[in-house]
Specification:
With about 280 residues, the chain is an alpha/beta fold. It is about 40% helix and about 20% strand. The chain starts with a strand and ends with a helix.
Length: about 280
């Protein structure tokens, strides 16, 4: 399974790692890491991207809008200022697929022009103008399920059948994309762990991950350092690596082809060991 991401071809015959690079001041784990004197430092962000590529990341996911539970929206101009300079810097220096974690039409267009190869949208191109912007770029898109919006999504989410409802939503967005001109060969599904779900919803989705997408549409799983690890294991954000690695392995075993993580080197090691066990030479 391969996806064309701009000038790169992403080989998903085995699971790959997407490294998180949040250029926000307030994301739950790495917010503010790339700021100096109260302003975004593009060089700091580039150095982190370089490190993740050395560690084995196949994709760098740049995000300028915090979507943690309770996060407030920001303006398009503010998001552009956080994302586009970093995409430009990575494009100029590194040979890696750049994903942009955005729902904003202007950011989709400008990031693609700056060298991004993948659109990763937590709102599945439902924001007005986003679908049209994505079509115009010609880039592949990751469609994520989220019930509600970041500022309200964790206020007592309910489902009759979380697996069926998430799968149905993703199929509906697939149809909308195909009707607009985005071929299914350019689509990725993300069930949206932690986005309008309780811990039990998340665990149920993970148990049934393979049911959420047809075999020719790759699945992305973003479970790294999630708050459910903290609740289930009693761990603070900086103590969630073992839980994150366990969830990454479980997701890969259940069919995930892209693992979105903060701890790239450790996750790459997990995937390498899994391949050695499952594919002995």
């Amino acid at each position: 399974m391969k996806i064309i991401c701009g000038k790169h071809t992403l080989d998903l015959s085995h699971p790959v790692v997407m490294g998180v690079l949040n250029t926000t001041p307030d994301s739950f784990s790495d917010g503010g890491n790339y700021y100096a004197g109260g302003a975004l430092d593009t060089d700091l962000a580039l150095r982190r991207a370089e490190q993740m590529v050395r560690e084995g990341a196949a994709i760098i996911d740049v995000g300028g809008e915090s979507t943690r539970p309770g996060a407030a929206p920001i303006s398009e101009q503010e998001e552009l200022g956080r994302v586009v300079p970093v995409v430009e810097a990575i494009t100029a220096e590194l040979d890696v697929v750049i994903s942009v974690d955005t729902s904003t039409p202007g950011v989709i267009r400008e990031s693609a022009a700056a060298g991004a190869g993948l659109i990763n949208d937590v709102r599945a191109l439902e924001r007005p103008g986003a679908l049209e912007a994505a079509v115009a770029t010609g880039l592949p898109v990751c469609l994520m399920h989220m019930r509600g919006q970041p500022d309200n999504m964790q206020r007592d989410p309910h489902y009759g059948d979380v697996v069926a409802e998430v799968a149905a939503y993703l199929r509906e967005r697939q149809k909308a994309c195909e009707a607009a001109g985005i071929a299914r060969q350019r689509l990725i599904f993300d069930p949206g762990f932690g986005f309008g779900k309780t811990d039990e919803h998340n665990l149920t989705l993970l148990r049934n991950l393979s049911e959420l997408a047809p075999s020719d549409i790759p699945l992305l799983a973003g479970l790294s350092r999630k708050s459910m690890i903290g609740r289930l294991l009693g761990r603070e954000v900086d103590q969630r690596l073992p839980g994150s690695l366990a969830l990454a392995m479980l997701a890969a075993q259940r069919g995930a082809r892209i693992l979105r993580v903060h701890d790239v080197a450790a996750t790459v090691d997990v995937l390498r060991m899994q391949r050695l066990v499952d594919n002995p030479q």
